[in-house]
């Protein structure tokens, strides 16, 4: 059995080329059907995301070859081979298996440790299963990849610390507030970063959003997206007095929340805890605010330093992840070796059964006086003896399946059986 993988990703190809080679969901289904028709003896799956396009094949025969798959990809995406061939990686057997496991475990992602990729790999496997292009080999391979991903994310901290500014900000908020459902979130500004923070806060169960901006229509658009309310900018002080979490992301050239302004507001709030995320450059919040009691201020530089530390922490986990990968790849290779030995073992038992049946028939022919009960007893005993003698042979074949010794042993046993059969006549 050969495992073959060809593909390209964000490291090997520019986004313009990845866009041209990418498959839609319907396109994947069509391509798999064409692969099945063109190479009916092979198993196939296609993984297509914004960062990668990969075709994975498992085959018992000599086709498809790398050249076949490259030609297929060119036809499927209507691109000349020279346009993308230099950007491809071509992996075979253990290297292909390791690559798939690394992809599923998010070790090959643009953001190491992200969780989205394993869902995309599961979707690719589901699509291949629906099209009938998976079999015993790819079923085992994908499930082992999912097991590997689960182990890596549960046994290491590769995905524990957030590595984007918005998600890191929400993680810090969690250290201040035990829950978000009863907290009031005030968004000042309606830019992209503010939108992302809103998304992460909603995922963390924040429910009460108020958006204000100098352009009320922009505030309304973001408020609608986060199921909140929009208020005019001149109500800022009133909204600050109600807010527990404040996100600032305006283009104002100077601080809009000064220490003096917030001091007055904090008196109204009876100095309840306030968490402020300042995503603006220039900063929207006076740095002196961080000196105030019960006020927690993080600007984009501080968040950036936290993200950099988190990224380094994730990278420090890679060696441990690779050790887990080695263990899971070894497990898959053992299964594969045993699979290769299985036909030999089945042939051994078939040969032994034929010898057993012939010898038993000759015995019964020579002893016609045996009763039915006696015949059954003899047959059961002979079957038990045969299985007891065959078990060590099967065990030895499985144990040495990765070497040529197992095939030699099986061939020798088969030859002995044939010789005995001819000798008997």
Describe the structure.
- It contains 16 helices and ten strands.
- The protein has helices spanning about 15-20, 25-40, 65-75, 80-85, 95-105, 115-130, 135-155, 165-175, 190-205, 215-225, 235-240, 260-270, 300-315, 320-365, 370-400, 405-425, and strands spanning about 1-10, 40-50, 50-60, 90, 185-190, 210-215, 230, 245-250, 275-280, 295-300.
- The strands form two sheets. A six-stranded parallel β-sheet has the order 7-6-5-8-9-10, sandwiched between helices.
- It is of the alpha/beta class and about 425 residues long.
- α7 packs antiparallel against α14, α14 (about 320-365) runs antiparallel to α15 and α15 (about 370-400) packs antiparallel against α16 (about 405-425).
- It folds into three domains: about 1-160, Beta Polymerase, domain 2; about 165-315, Rossmann fold; about 340-425, no CATH class.
- A hairpin with a 3-residue loop joins β2 and β3 (about 50-60).
- The mean pLDDT is about 90.
Short synopsis of the structure:
With 425 residues, the chain is α/β, with parallel strands linked by helices. 59% of the residues lie in helices and 13% in strands. The strands form two sheets. A six-stranded parallel β-sheet has the order 7-6-5-8-9-10, with helices on both faces. The protein has a four-stranded antiparallel β-sheet with strand order 2-3-1-4, with helices on both faces.
């Amino acid at each position: 059995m050969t495992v073959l993988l060809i593909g390209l990703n964000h490291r090997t190809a520019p986004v313009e080329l990845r866009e041209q080679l990418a498959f839609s969901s319907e396109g994947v289904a069509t391509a798999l059907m064409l692969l099945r028709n063109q190479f009916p003896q092979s198993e196939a799956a296609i993984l297509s995301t914004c960062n990668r396009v990969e075709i994975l094949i498992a085959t018992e025969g000599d086709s498809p070859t790398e050249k076949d798959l490259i030609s297929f990809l060119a036809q499927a995406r209507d691109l000349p081979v020279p346009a993308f061939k230099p950007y491809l990686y071509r992996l075979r057997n253990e290297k292909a298996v390791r690559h798939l496991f690394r992809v599923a475990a998010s070790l090959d992602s643009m953001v190491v440790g992200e969780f989205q990729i394993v869902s995309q790999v599961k979707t690719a496997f589901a699509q291949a299963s629906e099209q009938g292009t998976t079999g015993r080999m790819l079923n085992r391979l994908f499930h082992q990849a999912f097991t590997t991903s689960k182990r890596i994310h549960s046994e290491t901290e590769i995905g524990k610390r957030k590595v984007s500014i918005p998600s890191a900000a929400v993680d810090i908020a969690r250290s201040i507030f035990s829950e978000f459902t009863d907290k009031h979130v005030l968004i000042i500004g309606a830019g992209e970063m503010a939108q992302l923070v809103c998304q992460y806060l909603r995922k963390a169960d924040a429910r009460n959003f108020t958006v204000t901006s100098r352009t009320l229509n922009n505030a309304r658009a973001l408020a609608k997206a986060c199921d909140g309310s929009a208020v005019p900018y001149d109500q800022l002080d009133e909204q600050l007095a109600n807010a527990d979490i404040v996100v600032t992301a305006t283009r104002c050239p100077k601080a809009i929340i000064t220490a003096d302004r917030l001091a007055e507001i904090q008196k109204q709030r009876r100095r309840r805890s306030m968490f402020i995320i300042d995503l603006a450059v220039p900063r929207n919040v006076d740095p002196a605010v961080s000196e105030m009691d019960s006020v927690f201020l993080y600007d984009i530089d501080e968040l950036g330093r936290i993200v950099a530390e988190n990224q380094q922490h994730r990278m420090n986990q890679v060696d441990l992840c690779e050790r887990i990968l080695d263990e899971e790849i070894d497990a898959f290779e053992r299964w594969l070796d045993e699979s290769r030995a299985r036909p030999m073992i089945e042939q051994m038992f078939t040969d032994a059964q034929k010898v057993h049946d012939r010898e038993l028939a000759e015995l019964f022919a020579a002893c016609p006086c045996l009763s039915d009960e006696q015949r059954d007893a003899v047959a059961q005993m002979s079957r038990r003896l045969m299985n007891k003698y065959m078990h060590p042979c099967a065990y030895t074949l499985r144990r040495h399946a990765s070497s040529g010794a197992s095939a030699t042993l099986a061939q020798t046993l088969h030859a002995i059986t044939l010789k005995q059969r001819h000798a008997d006549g």
